[in-house]
Amino acid sequence: MPETSGFAGRTPETHVIDFRAAEQLLAARDPRGAVKLLDNVIAAYPENTAARLLRARAFFAAAQLRPAELEFTIVLEREPDNAFAHFALARTYERSGQPGQAMRHFRLAAALDPQPEYLAAARFDS
């Protein structure tokens, strides 16, 4: 009888398919479905920063703020110059009622990448 649990039958190609499907689920506003697929990818490839960033976005979209915060933090430990991750972590802190932490990361995002959205959120002029 074939093994159907765990990683049996899972290949690198299967994980790529799961990652791409998770992107589609998130775009289709099914963040919980995306998280479920990404759990398998990250279990197999815990160092995969792209998968962690996508899972952080999915957690945020599902209003699971603490897991989103943890994933964005892991991404930033690996890529401290990732402006998007700083911005997204700031939004997470903002939603969870931590304005000081949010402003710190909004400003880091804007300093790393002066996009209008990042600059507006950083409120350097105030």
TrEMBL record:
Superkingdom, taxonomy of origin: Bacteria
InterPro entries: TPR-like_helical_dom_sf, TPR_2, TPR_rpt
Keywords: Repeat, TPR repeat
TPR repeats: 83-116
Signal peptide: none
SMART domains (alphabetical): TPR (SM00028)
Name of the molecule in the record: Uncharacterized protein
Source species: Streptomyces aurantiacus
